[in-house]
Amino acid sequence: NGLNYIWIESLCVNRDSRSEVSEAINSGWKYFQSAALCLVYLPDLPCGTSQPDEETWRLSRYWSRVWSLQELVFASRICFYDSRWHLRGDTSSEGFSSLLSRVIGIDGDVLAKHKSVHEISIARKMSWGGGRISPRAEDLSYALLGIFGIRMPIAYGEGEESAFRRLQEEILRTTSDMTLFAW
């Protein structure tokens, strides 16, 4: 497919280096935005050769992970693979973005790249993060930095509430969109 490089976050970021982790969190969305292709392996998607129906897609744990937001919103093209590495979906396929939108609640126009994430209200973008999970409480806020186009110091151990308050403060510094207060 003509690709010269591959970036795998779990291999390319030294988790023992605070500065590397901080940079990856603050800038990771740029990797997805610059990528020609993002590959997503769904180990819990049943093996098959055709595109799964909406309910089958909905069952994957991938959609509940907070870090999947950046991949979904910023990657120009995403190919989804099942437990046996069969291609099961491609965001460049006609109609696939609207199927994903129904499954995950992110606007279809954003998924199809017809609309920039920056055109979406703060409240709407916040809703995309609602109900998602992460092994580290602070990541529920940190994973949204790219979605809002902001940077902030990463402080694991500060707790979920402190991280969210700092996220809101940073958003307020960069926007006049008062829908933030809906959260």
Polypeptide structure, described:
It is a single chain. The termini are far apart. The protein has a three-stranded mixed sheet, with no helix packed on it. The protein has helices at residues 9-12, 18-34, 54-58, 68-74, 96-104, 108-111, 122-129, 139-142, 145-148, 160-174; strands spanning 38-41, 78-81, 87-90. The chain has one domain (9-182). The protein is mainly alpha-helical. The longest helix is centred in the first third of the chain and has 17 residues, at 18-34.
Q: Which oligomeric state applies?
A: single chain
Cα-based radius of gyration, to the nearest Å: 17 Å
Approximately what portion of the residues adopt beta-strand conformation?
A: 5-15%
- Spell out the helices and strands N to C: HHEHHEEHHHHHH
Give the tally of β-strands: 3
Largest sheet: 3 strands, mixed
Number of domains: 1
The parts where pLDDT drops under 50 for at least 5 residues are: none
Report the total helices: 10
Helix content: 40-55%
Shape: globular
SS content category: mainly alpha
Mean pLDDT: 92
Strand order of the largest sheet: 1-2-3
User: What is the distance, rounded to the nearest whole angstrom, between the alpha carbons of the first and last residues?
Assistant: 43 Å
List keywords for this structure.
183 residues, mainly alpha, 3-stranded mixed beta sheet, 10 helices, 7% strand, DUF8212 domain-containing protein, DUF8212
SSE blueprint and pairings:
Elements: H1 9-12, H2 18-34, E1 38-41, H3 54-58, H4 68-74, E2 78-81, E3 87-90, H5 96-104, H6 108-111, H7 122-129, H8 139-142, H9 145-148, H10 160-174
Parallel strand pairs: 1-2
Antiparallel strand pairs: 2-3
